[in-house]
Structures are given as C-alpha cells and as structure tokens.
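Progress against Task 2.4 (sequence-to-structure conversion) is shown through the following example record, which the project officer requested during the mid-term review.
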Amino acid sequence: MSNKVYKIFEDVEVKAKLLAKYWYNFYTEISEHLPDTYQPEMQQLSSKLEEALSKLVDELHNPTLTLATTGTTSSGKSTLVNLLCGAEIVPVAVSEMSAGAVTIEYSKEKSLIIHETPGALWECGEWRDITEEKIYQRLYQVMISYIENREQQPNLACPQSTIFYPFRLLKESKLELPHGTRVRILDLPGLASVGDEGNANIIKQCREALCLVTYNSAETDSQKVKSLLQEVVQQVKDLGGSPARMLFALNRIDVFRADRNWPETENRFVENAIRNIKNELTERLKEYTEDINNLQVVKLSTWPALLSLQIQNPDDIYSVDACKKADNNFNGLIEDILEDLPRNTQKWSRHDRNRVAEALWQKSYAEEFQHNLKEHITQHFPQLVIPQIIESFNVVAGNAITEWATQTTTAILNSSEEEYQHECDKISYIRLAIERFLKISDTNLREPFEKIDRKIKQVIAQESEDDPVLYLESTISELKDVEPYNSLGEKLYPLYGWRRELGQGINQVLESVAKSLESGRVDLDSPNLKKANVLNVNLLGRNLSRLVNLGYTAEVAKEGKTMEARTDAEKNKLKQINEELNELAIHLNIVMEDVLKQISNQELNRMYQAVVELFNCHLSHIEKGANDIAPNIAIKFPESQLSKVESQPTFNFRFQAGFPINQGTWEEPIKVAREERTWYTLWIGKKTIYETEYQTRSSDNAKIPSVEDLLTGWIFQGREEELKIVNQIAHWLLEQIDCLKKNVDKMQKEIIDRYQTRLDKANQEITLDYEKQRNVWQPMQQKAQNLAEEFSSLETFLKEEH
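Structure tokens generated for the chain above:
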C-alpha cells in the first residue's frame, strides 16, 4: 500500500480511464450487431462519459486541501498557524486575539487582502509584495479595532482576511499531493468569536476540511480543565463531520520538562488527557463512538518549534532575536547546550544557533507532529475528496452506461415474439414486486416516527403522561435493532441527544448566574456563555452586580426572603430589587437566546447528518432488494440525488421571571400624650403619661425568591419547550420520509419504463435466431454485466485498495 497521496489519486484516475476504455471496446463490439437507430443513444452516452471523465480527471488533478485550525482557550492556535506557515504572520497574544477568520492560500508571491465587511472600522484593501511584519501588523490593527468596538457595536461584522503566502507546510513537509492541488490554511476564530454571524458562515465552508484542534496542556486548575474538555466538544461540533478527520494537538507540552519526574509526569498527563478527551467526546457525540476510539492525538509545543524555524532564518538580526526569546522562555529545553555557549545570545555563532534550533525542534515534538500531520493528510485527504468525485462521475455517466448496457442486451435476448410477451408479463410482475417491496420498506421506516407522532398528539391532548423525548429515544432504539438499520449503531443518537445538549446549555448559563449572585462575585466565564454576544453578556453581568449591591446575595440569594417594606427607603429598595429581577429575566432571555441558537444550530446539523445516514442505509437496502427482484435492469438509487434532507426545524425559547409586590397593611404603634391628675396631690396636680395607640399603615409586601426558585422556573420553562421540539422533529422526519419515497418511486418507475421502451424497440427492430442468441448476445450480455461490475467497483475501489 502506497502512502503517497498523489499515488492514490493517480490510481483512481487510471481506473476511471480503464472504465472508459472498457465502454469504448463494448461500444465498438455491440455496434457491429445493432441497427443504426441505436447509434444516437450510444453516442450520447459516450459524450456524457467523455464529459464525466474530463471532469473527474480535472478534479483529481486540482483538488483543494484545506487545513482548518481551531483550539481551546489559550491553546496556542495562532502559533500553530504560524508554525505551519513557517513565519509569524498571524497575531499572537495572551488574551483572545482571534477575531474573524483568516484564510492563508499557498502562493509564491506574498500579498494580503482585508475584505470589505459591513461597518468595517479598519482599513480594507489589497497589499501586494508585502513583508511578514507588515502582514502581522495590519492583521493586528484589524483585530484590535474589531475587539475594541464590538461591545459598542454588537452587530459589527467580524473581519475576513486572505493571505497569499509560500507557507512551509507545502514547501518542506514533503507532502506528496497531486501537482495541481490547491492548499490553504483556514485559521478559524477562537471559541469566544464563534457566535459571530460572519464566522458562522466561514465555519460552514470548512465542513470538508481536515482539522487541527489545539488543547492547552499547561492548564492545571481542575475546573478550567473541565471547561477545556467542554470546549473541545464545542470545537468538534462547530467544525462538523467526523472526529476521524481531526488531529488533536496537546500543545504547550513542554511545561512538564520542568518536573522532577519528567517524562513520567508528561506520559501520565498525555494518557489522562487522551482518555478524558475521548470520554467527553464519546459521551456527547455518541454517533461517532467508533471514530473517537481511533482518535489521533499528538504532543506539541508550538512556540519553541516556531522559534526553531526563526533561529534558522538567514537574517542574523531576526535569528538572534529568536535566540533571545528561546533563552528567556525555554531555557529548560536547551540547558545542556547553554553550558557551552556565551551568556549573551548576540555572541552565539551560526553553528551555536543551529544547535539550539535543532534541540528546540526535537524537544518540542515538532518532527513527530510534522510526521503525524503528513500521515493524517495521507490517510484522510483522499477519503474526504475522492468519494464525491466518483459519485459525481457515476451520476453523470457511469449509472447510465451500466443501465443501458445491461438493459439493452437483456431486451435483445428477450426480443423474439415468444419471449417478448413473456418479458412484458415479467416486467408487470417486477413493477408490482418492487412496488410492494418499496411500500413495505417505507412502512418499516415510517412506522417508528408515526408512533412518535401519535404519542405526541396524545401528550398534547393530555391523554398520556409519557415523557415525549424518552419515548422518542426508546422508539429510535427499537429501530436500531431492526434490519437493515441495526448497522447504524449510534448514528441516530442526535435525533434525541439534543435534549441533553440544550439542557446542559441552559444549566451552565443558570449555574453561572446562581454562583455569581450567591458568592457576590460576578463570573460569567463559561464555554456556553462565550457563544453569546459579548455586549449582551456584559449587560447581564452589570445587572447581576446591581442585584448584589442591593443585597440580593449570600443568604438572601440562597434562601429567599419575605420582606415587608414599611419606610419609603425600604419600599424603594424592594421596588429596585423587583425591577432588577425583571431586568435579569430580560437580559437572561437575550443571552439564553444567543446560547441556545448556537447549540440548536449544532444539534440541528447533527440531526441532519443522522437523517442522511438513515436515508443512505435505507437506499442501500432498497437498491439491493430491487436488484434482487430485477437483476437485469440495473436499478440505482444514488445517494447524492435522493438522500436530500430539506427544511430543518427551528427551536425557540422564551423565558419569564420577576416576583409580585403585593399591597398590605401593618399596625404602626404611636405614643399618645395625656395629662392626668394624681391622687397624692389631692387631684390638684397633673402629670403627663403616654399611651400606645395603633394606626393602620400601608406596606409593600413580597416574598423575594431564592436563586434556586428563580432559576428552577427557567429550567421548567425550558422543558415545556421540549414537547414542541419533539413535535417539530416528528413532523419534519415524516415529511422527509415522504419526500424520499416520492423520489425513489419516481426513479424506479423511470428505470423500468426505460427497460420497457428498450424491450419494445428490440422487439420491433431486431430479429434473433437461436445461433445469434447463443453465439453473440449471450456473451454480449455477460460482457454487459462485467462492464456494470467494473463501473460499480469504482465506488469501492478507494476502500479496497487503500
């Protein structure tokens, strides 16, 4: 097995050209025995084949390899991009610098385009023959401008930039790609910017990319590590597709070099990190369990690896500056060499610098990473590109040739008057048999979802108390035990797994709010809250700060409080708390909508893929069944034409909160003065005495809810939406199944109609005697079947050969 990517592409091209040769040989031979009336259709098939082959060869020669990079918080993603480029052209900072997407296209000439975006507050345009430093500075200014202004202008479109650069990945990593391969690096925004609309559009474009996901190995805080694992899940979801095409890099792995027990601590961390990442992904993305088990995870320290490249730069000033950074930041990686070198890095010779560069390269695992990246591309790039190219080839020409050759030879063998009538009767039987088979198959596919639909109607009518989501889950689980759908494994999990994801998203936001109020310290730094517009999150934070300042914190927030406001000051404070709690509902509403919109988009994409998997399995099953019934008609149900899922459902959430202030009364004690004569002055003298009287006063009375009571209400409101969601899903699935059945019925009818037409034509135009049938057309039918098998084998060629 060759490990060269171009060899795989070359083999597919050779196979496709052989298929064309087989067809032309078959064409030449069959033409000798057919009337001229067959020529137009055969020429049309040849023309389509030429067109399809030309397109296939062009796509095989000029594929696009996209490497999409993303990563967890402070994981060194931008440094990884610079490492792939071999130069520091993408801004790197301690704080989150990712703002918008940067596409880096391979080109021998250097240039930068900052695209025009709505409301851009930075300079847009194109700069040719630009230096690395100028690229860096321009991008830095753009990102700073965007980050500083997006709080005041939440609808500000994020910047989009394209760099044309002769990056190192292609020049020095010895990738063996088809000569016309277009290579690009797509530097995706960090998690903090994923919610931006412009970035969401870019993320959609990288669905067919190979992905590099960086993980921050230097983080030790257990809570933050947990948050990082959640971010990994979010990154995988945002990138879409299988984790099999993602290479995970445990970046900043050099931190363990300082440990006394290195490399034991490093190895232990790597084992734990890989296990934790796999566990988190498996738990949250069950549909990819098998791929996750084979997840590719590598060690890397991007910064020292990049410094290694910079030290080798022929520019001495640039090289010495990189040496200084290496000495200041990665002393431990080169300590065995430093003993031989002058303390002043400016005095290091070129030989000294090369020794340092080599040590940094090896100890940062850069060589190991480069090897793994090359293998990752070799393994997954052909699988990502070639199946679609082959499918397109078959849809344009391959399926039609297979059908024509099989049906025509079969029709001619049944063209005599005696056989013709028998074959017509057989076609009628085939129609009925296939219709019956397709109807049964459709019923088996529809039945679970009709059960769900009926159950939902019962729940809505309050005729059932069943949990609709659990019912959906159990019904789909039953489907997974029935052939052919038992081959799907956990692929259908997203159809009910969305409950957990939406629930976890809601809970994570509410937990941040609760913790902030109860502790008196506002902290809204959680993975899901990073999905929301930063301005909306800041407004929520200020609202929480005001509540804390009003005393809605600590015990009041934990336990709640019954408050009787008597004085104007107390009434005003109670009114303010009420207003702020109602404001909390408003701000939380807005933030929650942002968060749930992002989660919903992720879950709907997963559901879409689940339904595509279900339909593909169904199509494969009915294609085999139809061909078992009619083996000589060449029935094909192409996935790309039939497995089309339309009009995804939408999820909407609205929340309410606040508490009522009731008018009440209270008895205020008042001292009343009264004069009274005393007996010891013979009732002549008087003294003043005070008596207590009670006067009715009005008050504002309220039971201030605890945070738990307040937020539990939102959780219940979220759950009330679940019935609506399941209802939408059930309707949507039934609509898609109806559409699939309609398209399948239409296609199979057209295929059989074409066979009937070819049979009629053969009956009218071809006279067949026994000798001709035995010596010409039976061998010709066998050749047609061989041709069909060769065309079908192209679909499985990639899997079998590589």
